Amino acid sequence: MTNIDRLYSDRAGKMRKSEIRELLKVAQDPEVISFAGGLPSPRSFPLQDIQGVVKSVLEHHGEVALQYGTTQGLTELREAIAERACKDGMDVTAENVMITSGSQQALDTIGKIFLNPGDVALVGLPTYLGGINAYRSYEGNLVGVPLDKDGMIIDVLEEKIIELQKEDITPKFIYVVPTFQNPAGVIMPEARRKKLVDLANEYDLVIVEDDPYGKLRFDVDHIKPIKSFDDEGRVIYMSTFSKILSPGFRLAWTIASEELSRKMIICKQALDLCTNTFIQFIVNDFMRSGSLDLHIMKICEMYKPKRDIMMNAMENYFPDGYICNKPKGGMFAWVTLPEGIDTEIMFLDALKEKVAYVHGKAFSVDGSGGRSMRLNFSYANSEKIEEGMKRLGAVIDKKLKVIC
Question: How far is CA 203 from the centre of its chain?
Fold first, then answer.
């Protein structure tokens, strides 16, 4: 076979495979109980409702829905998203909204328009692996800021910014997942959100607010997005229908100032011309019928008991010494194990026992997180959650006995 390595760009040579995607391949064995992927429950998909909407779209909008669309997205859908955003406290119109082919396209677009090789972006420790991969693909230098139970620690963030400025480095943006953070599951409180915006204003930075899980609330009231406190157009808000409707639709959106939106639209034109028009019509009709809000309620009612089963199973099957703060929403639990355990190494032992997770190092840009792991509670059914946690507890217990 011809060797064409010499033809690749420098950027292509630095690209790395997604750890989660590779783990998911390994965990495809039907006997493996997987807590690895960020997958919604397949039982949450509103199949009958979608069938009816598809039929209606074809009957009433077929010729338009099957055609190319505008890069920015279907006007009616953008208007519906803007209306919902205003209810969340954001002062926006449809002109601030861009529809994307999944959140990953939004992350990629942001990396493309902001990052030159070596440019600094500030991210959480830990943070979403998809964001890490997107920004590293543009050769960004990602600097981690630790989290506590209230999300990114703003005082430490400011210290990092000041340290970088002393080296004549100005970060391009701050990437945060403030609500039911992936992977840590924590919530940034309102006071800290306001302080983050103040910090961005003071140091002339952009904030990228990634909010896939904000509607999946179990034990907490609605929290205003960071974007709702943005009075200078510094926050790019992004969310998705993947967690609240269907990941197979590959439909997400960004909300930004008109200036930032124009730049992202130009970038998107080179990526895919337009997002799937047919799917946009389907989702728009589903939203405007009132079905989406009812569906989100059903999802929350489905996921909360799963979360509780996982938390109770940890108490029953995990050895003493683990740390896991009970998530109040979202899809993930973040577990830190006792000293001496490396969850990356332990993954192979877990796989032998037919259980899978994602190790903590995958989410950390500085190589930390070696004792931690992310567990998804939304995908597996209740019986498999119980059995999977039992298997995982036995693996951890065996590791601890070897260490001792």
Answer: 26
Beta strand segments in 15-161, E: 33-34, 97-100, 120-125, 141-148, 151-152
Secondary structure (3-state) at 17: coil
Class of domain 68-290: alpha beta
Q: pTM of this prediction? A: 0.95
CB atoms within 10 A of CB 389: 26
Class of domain 5-46+293-403: alpha beta
Q: Which H helix or E strand runs over 333?
A: strand 332-336
Report, as an integer, the average pLDDT of 307-318. Answer: 98
d(CA 391, CA 335) in angstroms, rounded, equals 15
Antiparallel, parallel or unpaired: β 206-210 and 173-176: parallel
Structure tokens at 353: 């026992």
252-305 residue pLDDT tens: 999 999 999 999 999 999 999 999 999 999 999 999 999 999 999 999 999 999
| H helix intervals, 184-246 | 190-203
Q: Where are the domains of the chain?
A: 5-46+293-403, 68-290
